[in-house]
Amino acid sequence: MLALNHADATLKVGTLTALGIYSAVILLLLSILLLRVLRLAKERRRQAVTETWRPLLAQCVVEVPETVPPLKPRDHIVFLYLWNHCYESIRGEARAQLIELARRMGTDQVAKQLLHARRLRRRLLAIVTLGHLQERSAWNELAVILEADNAFLSLVTAKALLNIDAKAAIPLLIPVISRRHDWSPLKVVAMFEAVDSGLAAQTIAIAASQAHPQIGARLIRHLAATQSPQGLPPLRALLQRGTPPDDILAACLFLFGECSDPRDVATIRAHIFHPTWYVRLQAASALGKVGVEEDEVLLIKLLDDEHWWVRYRAAEALSKLPWMTPEKLAELCSGLSTVESHEHMVPFMAQTNVGKTRPMPPASQAPRAA
Predict the structure, then answer these.
(1) N or C, where is the chain less crowded by C-beta within 10 Å?
(2) CA distance 79 to 197
(3) How far apart are CA 100 and CA 133, in angstroms?
(4) What is the CB neighbour count within 10 angstroms for residue 337?
(5) What string of DSSP letters covers 160-182?
(6) Closest alpha carbon to 257 in 221, 210, 304, 311
């Protein structure tokens, strides 16, 4: 009798367990089906918003539409993505017309609300939108976000501040750029794309002169991408104030060579025999781009340097001097006193000879195709 009761209890437990498993599976399938239905509905709504607003945004290139359809709050996120994409795709007065349309739709207020969203993607969308709208009323909130630990969030905020008011943003950005080791110099240069290149170069140079040597050196090396000489005066002042760290000095010499300003020749010469090998290397490369004929002697002396890379860069600089001809290079090479210096010059002599035109063989002597 006890065994029978025990068997009944086991059967009931097994039955309840099976029912529970089946119920869980059914609930799981229903939840998957519900999520799929919701996703499809969301995609259809997004497609409908896109089909409605894309032609209207394109029309803003010519003029702002007089009448526009109402925009539901839940559809405003899709509208923001479309609007920002259109804004970044055009230039000139058409952007002002896009801003007018966005303000008519209350986009500025929606973006301010999204600044406090939990999702990072929505916060980034809000920051980009406020920057494009040049929304000065959001300045204080953006200035706080500029100090965020998230490097990408702070970089996007910096660009938005520059879009709102570049001159007012510079005092905020200089100390931040100088201390943020997680900001890529390439990203820093890129965020100044919408700003005058001279102002960008000057800002980056000032920030580099105040930064840690490792950060400052990386910033200075990327200053050449701005193609503006306005970044040179702050760096010249930095070198005149005293002896900077070797990393900063080498980066400055590199930039002086890239900009090729004759006013920097004396500074480059002064460091041609610097105790640190990579400073000598940058001085040699820079002197090859901006030096005069009298500087050949300095570069020839570096061909006997103790460091291989310095000798190599000195040989390369000699071969690229504007007045250097293959004949003069061969004459210079024949007068070298050491085997090491001669070995460094030989490859560059070969490169200059490759550029010479060779006469074509007569048709009767032309080699046959294999």
Answers:
(1) C
(2) 32
(3) 9
(4) 10
(5) HHHHH-HHHHHHHHHHHHHH-TT
(6) 221
Does pTM surpass 0.90?
no
What contacts 24+ positions apart, CB below 8 Å, involve 120-126? 120/150, 120/153, 122/77, 123/153, 124/152, 124/153, 124/156, 125/77, 125/80, 125/81, 125/84
Q: What Cα–Cα distance (Å) separates residue 313 from each residue in 220, 250, 278, 286, 295?
A: 20, 14, 10, 10, 14
Q: What gap in Å lies between CA 304 and CA 315, rounded to an integer?
A: 10
The single residue listed with the structure tokens 């980056």 is 204
**pLDDT 10s digits, 320-334:** 888 877 777 777 777
Q: What residue has token string 């002064």?
A: 270
Q: State the Cα–Cα distance between residues 268 and 252, nearest whole angstrom.
A: 9
Residue 183 contacts residue 155 (beta carbons within 8 Å): yes
Q: pLDDT tens digit string along 89-100? A: 888 788 888 888
Q: Contact 300/325 with Cβ under 8 angstroms?
A: no
Q: In the chain, how long is the greatest CA-to-CA distance? A: 117
Distance of alpha carbon 107 from alpha carbon 178, whole angstroms: 34
**Average confidence score pLDDT of the chain:** 83
Q: By three-state DSSP, how is residue 361 classified?
A: coil
Q: Residues 243, 248, 252, 253: is their CA dihedral positive or negative? A: positive
Token digits of residue 43:
């995609």
Which pLDDT score is estimated for 2? Answer: 52
